[in-house]
Design a protein that fits this description.
With 131 residues, this protein is mostly helical. It is 73% helix and 0% strand. It is elongated and about 55 Å long.
Length: 131
């Protein structure tokens, strides 16, 4: 299962909604927009470093900013889902794990790899009762 789909399932499970619920946040396309923004930034950066023509309109700095905005957007949505899971009631072990994951998201070093790991760990917590 792809990370975009896991992101959507996590939000849908936490908020007990269908795709597009929670004011449109429970949608894999939000995750995919983040992936595109990161790819655009990385492509432009690589082209600039190699002296090649730009791969995208906008400066490297603008594309880096847009990638950071999209990462933050996904991170905020995932944090909200974890807070919702916590609000609904979890055992002490799960609560500690959710607190740990939220702390990771609130750090200044969140990148796609970190975000993917948090999403997978949070999804595992959601599925724990369903195994």
């Amino acid at each position: 299962m792809g990370n975009a789909v896991i992101y959507e399932y996590l939000l849908c499970t936490a908020y007990e909604c269908s795709r597009g619920g929670v004011h449109g946040r429970a949608n894999a396309d939000i995750y995919r927009a983040m992936e595109r923004a990161i790819a655009n930034y990385q492509g432009q950066k690589k082209a600039f470093e190699n002296g090649e023509p730009p791969t995208w309109t906008g400066s490297v700095e603008e594309l880096e900013y847009q990638a950071d905005v999209e990462i933050s957007r996904v991170a905020q949505n995932v944090e909200g889902a974890m807070l919702e899971l916590k609000r609904k009631g979890v055992n002490q072990e799960e609560e500690n794990k959710l607190k740990e994951l939220i702390a990771v998201l609130r750090s200044n070093d969140v990148d796609k790899g970190t975000l993917d790991k948090v999403i997978e760990d949070a999804w595992d917590l959601c599925r724990k009762d369903k195994k």
